[in-house]
């Protein structure tokens, strides 16, 4: 009889974990839908990491984004990234990894959460917090917390663990906007004296 109780309890626990993970996935799906407006979206952000702090604005459209901080301007057209360093008047061209994109673009999680992560969901007041953990120990981002508004599913904070420690991204003033594809590519005419370094 006791063994039967333990088995039933274990099955209930397994079922509840499955339901919990499913609802966490639903929150992430709704958050991805809220962020990935076809015409584009804009927001302000603050980043605090182990070795740097900065703030700025970001425009996103699908996988494309353009971020501006006091130190740099970054363009990403879905494949190629251009980083203009204001201090040296220098542009670096690269093909970033998913972890590098996430460190720059707070909304990049909407493309990586379906690939090799387990989820748990916690509700805190008017917010959902989804905890993602990587199934593969080689992934660039091992853990991530995504905090979203429980009604609009717009994210307000993202915390992620990389090799050097935790990085926190706070997001404010999110709004949809009609954005031209041209703003996601570096235009050399706007920076005629910049040194261009191709790192690809």
For the secondary structure, the number of strands is 12
Level-1 CATH class name: Mainly Beta
In the CATH classification, which architecture applies?
Answer: Clam
Strand order of the largest sheet: 7-8-9-10-11-1-2-3-4-5-6-12
- Quickly give the structural class: alpha+beta
Radius of gyration: 20 Å
- The CATH homologous superfamily is named Lipoprotein localisation LolA/LolB/LppX
Overall body shape:
globular
What is the H/E string?
A: HEEEEEEHHEEEEEE
Profile the largest sheet.
12 strands, mixed
Q: What low-confidence regions span 5 or more consecutive residues with pLDDT below 50? A: 1-22
CATH topology: outer membrane lipoprotein receptor (LolB), chain A
How many structural domains does the protein architecture include?
1
- Strand percentage, roughly? 35-45%
Head-to-tail CA distance between termini: 65 Å
Name the average pLDDT. 82
Number of helical runs? 3
Helix content: 10-25%
């Amino acid at each position: 009889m006791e063994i039967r109780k333990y088995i039933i309890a274990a099955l209930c626990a397994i079922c509840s974990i499955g339901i919990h993970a499913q609802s966490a996935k639903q929150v992430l799906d709704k958050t991805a839908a809220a962020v990935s407006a076809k015409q584009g979206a804009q927001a302000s952000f603050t980043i605090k990491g182990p070795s740097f702090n900065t703030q700025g604005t970001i425009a996103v459209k699908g996988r494309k984004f353009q971020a501006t901080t006091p130190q740099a301007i970054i363009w990403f057209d879905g494949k190629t990234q251009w980083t203009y360093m204001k201090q040296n008047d220098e542009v670096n061209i690269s093909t970033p990894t998913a972890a590098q994109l996430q460190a720059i673009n707070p909304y990049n999680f909407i493309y990586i959460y379906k690939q090799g992560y387990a989820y748990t969901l916690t509700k805190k007041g008017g917010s959902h917090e989804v905890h993602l953990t990587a199934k593969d120990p080689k992934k660039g981002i091992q853990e991530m917390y995504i905090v979203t508004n429980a009604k609009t599913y717009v994210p307000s904070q993202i915390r992620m663990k990389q090799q050097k420690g935790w990085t926190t991204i706070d997001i404010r003033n999110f709004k949809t906007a009609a954005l031209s594809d041209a703003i996601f590519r570096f235009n050399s005419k706007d920076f005629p004296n910049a040194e261009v370094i191709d790192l690809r």
